């Protein structure tokens, strides 16, 4: 596999022989993945196959056992690399939102820009309001997370992840904890981001959505990438029996 | 790591600061009350002043020059009336006290009297916390091995007393199969042990006279053996007993210093004693307490309350002072070690765990003894009773606070720290802005709980002679023998103070941690 993408630029994210073990349990068994600038990669696979662990290695929320993860040219396994600086360029959205319950929606969004001295308070507030508007929640600026619906919480969480103007967004099953009627509003926000050209790695169980927004789909099983390719190829022309099995169950 | 913690502590979030503020406000309030009660306390009356001025000039020529102007710490029993006890206004009086003060005045030195209890006084002397002990102590061969004694200043003797209503026990022979109470380490104990086989009774050693009398009144023991002046004084104060046997030939009391040390103090004591005997002052002091001890009138509960209130408030002030100081230190210890426990460094985690296990795994009482008696023996550096008490309580409460802090931080969803770290915020900032404010909210009820426990635990410091509320109560019933009523008052004071403070803490908690 070449280190350059089709367009000739270096990959935004480059993963080489990534291995991750929890104790003696090897969860990732040597992954190689490239994500190009502006590319939307969806990761699918059965529960427990290592999708979340893979995603969490991309911003080093998990220690990496072996292999390399390079983001924007910075090797995360290099101890000299300032992880906090790299993480500012990678937004992450969690299955259970992980909003800060003791802050309002706006404060959740303003926290990082203000603490990291990227913006002064007034500018951060303006930026926060703009982001809230973008996810359709301007009127909830002063609401605490506890008073928001699941869909609203996840949209605030996305706005928070965007506050540092990241070049990359990671989504870990952003809609699986939601009631069905709220899935759409969150997917719409992600869809908009894709349309704007954001580089994204999206772990999802929404096969229709993956098919619609993904430039490429990765199917993981038991810690390895079983199959990857254009959505059409994965969903309509699955070759591996394990992928066929999986799709038969979820579709 | 330490700087990280300090940062965290200093830079609490707005809400965190509010909650922390709540805790500190309550502490400040504690300090305020302690200070206020300290302010209303009457200054202790210099009980020996008149005596001293009456005696000093006449015999000043025969003084030992090298003790002049020096101050000596002398330990005594808490209550061994009429040798040492507290009068109605909470001042230490008695034969030993008057004698010692008169001798000091006569010889031109000063004494700092520490009322510790008999066992504790001897330990304090051995650990050089004090230079001398005067506590109605018999001069025995065994004690002469470790102490040097003055000339005898009193010849004692043992008598037996039984409950006033008991008409069955009149002689030692009536004790067969029964239990008698004695004071631990006293002459009475030695005497009782010397005849127990012959008369077939068992001996139960207790810590002080008041407890012995209560044991007899409660029917646990049938008789007490005690020094005759002590028994006579107790009976005159309505201790509920009567004396049934004649005085046994007993030993003599002496003032003690550590063997081979403070010889000049001992010489001065002997000279002063001789001077007082010559001037007649010695006999006056004995007569004051022995010839015709004025019989106490049985006063009402409310008179008891009124009489004991100033001393008890003095004690409450000390209780609150020790509590407040200990809690502030414990809070700091708890935060430091709590963060050690949740941190990434294995070594710091182990250090914090060892600290917690040691202080949770040993009794507070043992810790108090260790810091007051044990540590000075190891280091040679005496520690005053407030410092020893506060160190004990802080380290003990700090261990529990550590667990509260650890538990509070660990009960915050790990996803919170991850979300914050994923935004590019560092560990310290994430803890400070995201985890700690949520943890404080969770910890507040446990903090309030610990603070009540620590307040109550101060009562254990009575055993090392720290003059807090319980100690003052003990002093009062030791002199008036009204144990039940006095303890009821003491308990009521604790209850009221704790009730008010918990209500207040809860209000603050609701206000700042909603
Ligand atoms: N912190 C952890 N400690 C130990 N095992 C873990 C941890 N996180 C995940 N695992 C294990 O790693 C495997 C993959 O988990 P995960 O990446 O969450 O899978 P997925 O997201 O595909 O469902 C599972 O077997 C899971 O039990
Ligand atoms: Mg997962």
From TrEMBL, chain A:
Provide the ABC transporter domain boundaries: 13-247
Tell me which Gene3D superfamilies the record gives.
P-loop containing nucleotide triphosphate hydrolases
Which SMART domains is this protein grouped with?
A: AAA (SM00382)
Q: Which SUPFAM superfamilies match?
A: P-loop containing nucleoside triphosphate hydrolases
Listed A to Z, the keywords are: ATP-binding, Nucleotide-binding, Transport
Fetch the InterPro entries from UniProt: AAA+_ATPase, ABC_ATPase_HisP-typ, ABC_transporter-like_ATP-bd, ABC_transporter-like_CS, MetN_ABC_transporter-like, P-loop_NTPase
- Give the molecular function GO annotations: ATP binding; ATP hydrolysis activity; ATPase-coupled polar amino acid-transporter activity
The keyword Transmembrane belongs to this UniProt entry's keyword annotation = no
Q: Which reaction does it catalyse?
A: a polar amino acid(out) + ATP + H2O = a polar amino acid(in) + ADP + phosphate + H(+)
Query: Where are the annotated coiled coils located?
Result: none
Q: What is its EC number?
A: 7.4.2.1
Domain of life, per lineage: Bacteria
Q: Name the CDD domains on file.
A: ABC_HisP_GlnQ
Q: What is this protein called?
A: ABC-type polar-amino-acid transporter
Task: Look up and give the organism this protein is from.
Answer: Arthrobacter livingstonensis
């Amino acid at each position: 596999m070449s280190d350059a993408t089709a367009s000739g630029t270096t990959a935004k994210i480059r993963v080489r022989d990534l291995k991750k073990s929890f104790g003696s349990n090897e969860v990732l068994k040597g992954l190689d993945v490239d994500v190009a600038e502006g590319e939307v990669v969806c990761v699918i696979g059965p529960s427990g196959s290592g999708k979340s662990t893979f995603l969490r290695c991309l911003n080093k929320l998990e220690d990496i056992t072996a292999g390399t993860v390079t983001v924007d040219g910075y090797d995360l396994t290099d101890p000299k690399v300032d992880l906090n600086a790299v993480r500012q360029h990678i937004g992450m959205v969690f299955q259970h939102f992980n909003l800060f319950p003791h802050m309002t929606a706006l404060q959740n969004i303003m926290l990082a820009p203000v603490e990291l001295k990227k913006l002064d308070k007034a500018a951060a507030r303006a930026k926060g309001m703009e982001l809230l508007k973008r996810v359709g929640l301007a009127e909830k600026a002063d609401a605490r997370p506890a008073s928001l619906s699941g869909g609203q919480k996840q949209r605030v969480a996305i706005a928070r992840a965007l506050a540092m103007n990241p070049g990359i967004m990671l989504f870990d099953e952003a809609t699986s904890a939601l009631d069905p009627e709220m899935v759409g509003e969150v997917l719409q926000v992600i869809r908009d981001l894709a349309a704007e050209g954001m580089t994204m790695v999206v772990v999802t169980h929404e096969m229709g959505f993956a098919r619609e927004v993904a430039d490429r789909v990765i199917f993981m099983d038991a810690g390895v990438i079983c199959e990857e390719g254009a959505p059409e190829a994965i969903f309509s022309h699955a070759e591996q029996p394990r992928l066929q099995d999986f799709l038969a169950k979820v579709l | 790591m330490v700087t990280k913690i300090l940062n965290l502590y200093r830079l609490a979030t707005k809400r965190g600061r509010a909650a922390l503020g709540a805790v500190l406000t309550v502490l400040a309030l504690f300090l305020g009350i302690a200070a206020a009660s300290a302010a209303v306390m009457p200054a202790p009356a210099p009980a020996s002043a008149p005596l001293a001025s009456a005696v000093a000039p006449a015999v000043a020529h025969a003084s030992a020059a090298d003790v002049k102007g020096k101050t000596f710490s002398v330990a005594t029993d808490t209550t061994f009336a009429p040798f040492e006890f507290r009068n109605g206004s909470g001042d230490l009086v008695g034969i030993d006290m008057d004698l010692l003060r008169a001798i000091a005045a006569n010889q031109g030195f000063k004494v700092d009297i520490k009322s510790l209890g008999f066992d504790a006084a001897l330990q304090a002397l051995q650990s050089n916390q004090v230079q001398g002990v005067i506590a109605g102590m018999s001069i025995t061969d065994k004690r002469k091995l470790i102490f040097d004694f003055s000339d005898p200043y009193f010849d004692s003797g043992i008598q037996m007393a039984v409950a006033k209503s008991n008409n069955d026990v009149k002689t030692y022979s009536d004790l067969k199969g029964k239990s008698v109470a004695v004071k631990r380490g006293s002459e009475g104990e030695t005497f009782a042990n010397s005849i127990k086989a012959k008369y077939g009774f068992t001996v139960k050693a207790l810590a002080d006279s008041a407890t012995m009398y209560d044991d007899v009144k409660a029917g646990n023991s049938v008789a007490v053996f005690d020094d005759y002046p002590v028994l006579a004084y107790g009976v005159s104060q309505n201790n509920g007993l009567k004396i049934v046997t004649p005085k046994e030939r007993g030993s003599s009391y002496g003032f003690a210093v550590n063997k081979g040390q403070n010889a000049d103090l001992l010489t001065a004591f002997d000279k002063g004693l001789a001077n007082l005997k010559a001037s007649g002052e010695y006999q006056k002091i004995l007569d004051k307490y022995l010839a015709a001890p004025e019989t106490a009138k049985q006063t009402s509960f409310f008179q008891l309350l009124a009489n004991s209130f100033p001393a008890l408030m003095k004690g409450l002030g000390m209780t609150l002072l020790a509590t407040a100081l200990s809690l502030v230190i414990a809070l700091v210890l708890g935060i430091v070690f709590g963060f050690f426990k949740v941190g990434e460094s294995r070594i710091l985690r182990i250090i914090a765990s060892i600290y917690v296990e040691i202080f949770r795994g040993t009794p507070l009482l043992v810790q108090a003894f260790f810091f007051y008696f044990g540590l000075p023996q190891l280091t040679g550096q005496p520690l005053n009773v407030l410092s020893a008490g506060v160190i004990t309580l802080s380290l003990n409460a700090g261990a529990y606070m550590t667990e509260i802090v650890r538990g509070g931080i660990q009960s915050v969803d790990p996803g919170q720290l991850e979300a914050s770290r994923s935004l590019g915020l560092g560990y310290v900032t994430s803890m400070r802005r995201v985890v700690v404010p949520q943890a404080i909210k969770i910890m507040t009820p446990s903090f309030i709980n610990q603070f009540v426990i620590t307040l109550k635990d101060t009562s254990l410091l009575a055993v090392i002679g720290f003059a807090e509320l319980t100690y003052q109560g003990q002093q009062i019933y030791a002199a008036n023998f009204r144990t039940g009523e006095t303890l009821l008052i003491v308990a009521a004071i604790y209850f009221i103070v704790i009730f008010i403070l918990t209500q207040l803490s809860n209000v603050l908690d609701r206000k700042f941690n909603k």
